Amino acid sequence: MNSTKSDARAADGPGDSGRTPFPYGRALLLLLALTALYVGMWAAFMPTSWYGSFPGLGRHWLPVLGPYNEHLSRDVGALYLALAAQSAGAARRTADTYTVRLTGVVWLVFSVPHLIYHLRHLDMYSGSDRPLNVLSLGAFVVAGAVLLMLPGTRPGRR
Length: 158
Description:
single chain, about 160 residues, mainly alpha, two-stranded antiparallel ribbon, 2 strands
């Protein structure tokens, strides 16, 4: 067998014989990808609905933050779609700790300032929306940090 093909398969997620440095890494990455895909598709392709109804389940977190802006809403959707693509790609290559850790960095670069903003503006929300806001946004910070703490195996292809 050609060693180049064999090396390429070894670096891919499903082709890595199921050996991952973190047994729940793929599940965490897929959860992040699906969550980002949910927000991204909604905001990018139905921005008015997203703005008025996010996060869903009868809650309305965005209107209290200011007036609707279609451009900003679609940009947020595109950002989340990029996060979904990065997370899905890393889920495919969990044996490549560089890619997985980079995905953790990407989530932290986005989610830490996002969480800080909302922590400073919790007074806009009432009742259970305050803790739910902190918990949901904090979960992305925790997920990004967990991805950074994966045990090392081998670096990605250069």
